[in-house]
């Protein structure tokens, strides 16, 4: 009986049209993002915020938030403000990462980076504006969700981005730049915080809003932690195997900056194997959800199969 159920799940996953799913969800997210951030005085800061926020991208983070909310019985409408907020926070991190004081990048998503268009000062403020506005959006635009769930989601997102999450990972990343003795353990710390913490928040916040039980939140947290680390491993691989045109951002930056990466420690073949193993572990965490988990299962595979 278990075998039959497993076979049925594999069949339904293979029939799931990820391209259509992503296209529909991306369109919903783009419309919500556009509507959530109108231009008003002082127009320069809102234009700068919108420049990076609406620059395209896969919108993987908000889509994960929507998918996890639906998985546990919630709706797209319940999670959309938080999904938008997650993309705002992510965009803020990209704007600041690209600054001369950080990664000093000229291109992001195939366009000039924010500071190249608006200057360092406005870019810093645009990132600041997106960060604080994200929490305002969750608090004021979330509807038909009990207040304790909204508060819990806000707290989880704040923790994920702070010194125990993205900020902490970025600090260690900066401190390790140029060090040839960076260990795998340190690299894991950097990326479970810098990349994985926000991806984990996307999945968990969506589930919180949908009313997930604690045991389901734990499963989804482990799922997200695994895909987050796999995402970074694949990012490291793409950085040295793809061109700037294919990536939409400067290629080979990690090598130029003498940053430790998974391929530099493990090599390409082992890095690919490790990423795939993490994806399989992530998918195993969703077994109890049955066919309802097909969007999240397919999104996990998408992470290792992407080309940018």
UniProtKB/TrEMBL annotation:
Q: Which SUPFAM superfamilies match?
A: Terpenoid synthases (SSF48576)
Q: Which GO CC annotations does the UniProt entry carry?
A: cytoplasm
Coiled coil ranges (UniProt) are 265-292
What EC designation does it have? 2.5.1.1
Q: Does the keyword Chaperone apply?
A: no
Which GO terms of the molecular function aspect are on file? dimethylallyltranstransferase activity; metal ion binding
Q: What InterPro entries does the database record attribute to this sequence?
A: GGPPSyn_CRT-like (IPR054848), Isoprenoid_synthase_dom_sf (IPR008949), Polyprenyl_synt (IPR000092), Polyprenyl_synt_CS (IPR033749), Prenyl_diphosphate_synthase (IPR053378)
Tell me yes or no: is Transferase among this UniProt entry's keywords: yes
Q: What UniProt keywords apply to this chain's record, in alphabetical order?
A: Coiled coil, Isoprene biosynthesis, Magnesium, Metal-binding, Transferase
- What is a biological process (GO) this protein takes part in? terpenoid biosynthetic process
Task: Please report the name of this protein according to its UniProt entry.
Answer: dimethylallyltranstransferase
- Which source organism does the UniProt entry give? Oscillatoria acuminata PCC 6304
